[in-house]
Amino acid sequence: MTALTLSTAGAATLRADALVVGIAKSGKELIVAPGAEAVDKAFDGRLAAVLETLGASGAEGEATKLPAPAGLKAPVVLVVGLGGAPEDGEAYGTETLRRAAGTAARALFGAKKAAFALPVAEAEAVSAVAEGALLGAYAFTAYQEVGKDAKRPPAEVALLGAKPRDKAHKAAAERAQAVAEEINRARDLINTPPNDLTPAAFAAAVQTAGKEHGLKVQVLDEKALAKGGYGGILGVGVGSENPPRLVRVAYTHPKAEKTLALVGKGITYDSGGISLKPAGHNETMKCDMSGAAAVFSTVVAAARLGLEANVTGWLALAENMPSGSATRPGDVLRMYSGKTVEVLNTDAEGRLVLADALTRASEENPDAIVDVATLTGAMMMALGSRTFGIMANDDEFRSTIHEIAEEVGEASWPMPLPADLRKGMDSPTADIANMGERMGGGLVAGLFLQEFVGEGITWAHLDIAGPAYHEGAPYGYTPKGGTGSSVRTLVRLAERAAEGEL
Q: Kindly report the CA angle at 202 between 135 and 398, in degrees rounded to 5?
């Protein structure tokens, strides 16, 4: 795990394996970003000119390594692009800094200590650079035989220009470290192979973290689920040798006035069940528990930050497998709410486990419920692979979550819940079917979930099917594999709850 420090040392005097500075575009010229003054001086004021000679453009995502000149203690200078320079008097955007720091951290795998001399005058900038560096320094190596020469993430990240004695800077760095480490916890869970991360193993991981952070954890196993009538979770998990679990993990604060309930889809592996996925669609289905991972990490983050809010996570964990005992298309499940559901497609299983968890969460009458799920391929068709969709039974709440996501640097988009699509889920056999019209399938899934939210409770649904798992080359602070999508948004929402703004 990469350590984070705020250093009072100057860029020229700090001993590190590499020194990170920023460059930006101003018209056709390159300009050195604040924080790099000492480095530019060591280059005789010609750092921008050297970079132009090498063909650097200053674009976001660009990283250029240079041998350090005399006068610097670090042997390498890494220059990262910040895009267009802000107008006079304006600061660099936090997401720009976050991505630049992530790009730098990825470029410095193999270094022991990296010093970041990026613009960090304000506490928001300190937080962004710290988050980006720690998220960019992520690597999942648990299953690799790594030799002594293998490149590891930097063991330490030092932020230059941040003030360790400034309360705002110190608090920003501490928050960034807690949030980044919890995002990386979610990433680790998402990347863990499904033969090791079964529902029971996931539940055990929550129990371990619960003891460490003072959380109350309750695990319902298959017997308790059957006794309680959780037909949705049991119906999805009945085909697997690894039985399902419903986990409640709760953080409470004695001064809390608001309660936020988070519900996460936790399909530890999704074969599609009897409605088997076609070839080429199974290889990444270990990521179908990304919603549960995000919820779990958010609750732990709330505890680490000591938020004055009650945050309860509900993890609906099951493995969706085909077998002689698996739920068939045409079967009818009686849900925890008492409603019956005709299963027309066993690969539309996430909404079934979420439905039971939503009903159970509603019984505690929280101020708001947010469910998070890699729910539909239709949402990826609509929004692509980097943006999650937001649906809600309250327009203001939906707008609030969208604004929060934008604030913390997560791409999202508000989506409707058209009432006319509900009729497509009418069933001649049961109260509702788990499938409706093909067009607008992501919205149909949201309408299905809405049926299981308690009356009068504010609710939102985040479909993170696109950004939860990144199959391409890493970029910015986003690695290949699990991303921890929505954790930052949920943590900020919990902070809003603590501030009485829920």
A: 60
Main-chain phi, psi angles of 443, to 5 degrees = -75, -35
* DSSP helix/strand/coil, 160: strand
428-461 pLDDT, tens digit per residue, is 999 999 999 999 999 999 999 999 999 999 999 9
Question: How many C-beta atoms surround the C-beta of residue 122 within 10 A?
Answer: 15
H or E segment to which residue 460 belongs:
strand 458-463
Look up residue 416 and give its two tokens. 């409707």
Rounded alpha-carbon distances, angstroms, from residue 125 to 133, 264, 398, 406: 12, 31, 27, 16
Residue 438 CB neighbour total at 10 angstroms: 9
Question: What one-character-per-residue DSSP string does 300-315 give?
Answer: HHHHHHT-SSEEEEEE
Q: How far apart are CA 314 and CA 299, in angstroms?
A: 10
pLDDT tens-digit series, residues 153-205: 999 999 999 999 999 999 999 999 999 999 999 999 999 999 999 999 999 99
The answer to whether 351 touches 320, Cβ cutoff 8 Å, is no
Q: How far is the C-alpha of 161 from the C-alpha of 209, rounded, in Å?
A: 34
Q: Which two tokens stand for residue 342?
A: 């005709």
The Cα 234–Cα 228 span in angstroms is: 11
Residue 320: in which H helix or E strand, if any?
strand 310-320
Per-residue pLDDT tens digits for 209-259: 999 999 999 999 999 999 999 999 999 999 999 999 999 999 999 999 999
Strand ranges inside 14-137, DSSP E: 18-26, 29-32, 63-67, 76-84, 113-116
The predicted structure's pLDDT at residue 180 = 98
What per-residue confidence (pLDDT) applies to 502?
84
Q: What is the mean pLDDT of residues 23-37?
A: 94
Catalytic residue among 277, 334, 339, 480: 277
- pTM metric for this prediction: 0.97
With a pLDDT cut of 70, the percent of the chain lying above it is 99
pLDDT of res. 89 = 75
Q: Which of 187, 351, 398, 496 is catalytic?
A: 351
User: Is the pLDDT at 149 greater than 60, yes or no?
Assistant: no
DSSP 171-224: HHHHHHHHHHHHHHHHHHHHHS-TTT--HHHHHHHHHHHHHHHT-EEEEE-HHH
Predicted confidence (pLDDT) at residue 146 exceeds the cutoff of 90:
no
Active site residue 277: yes
- Helix 487-498 vs helix 290-305: crossing angle, to nearest 10: 40
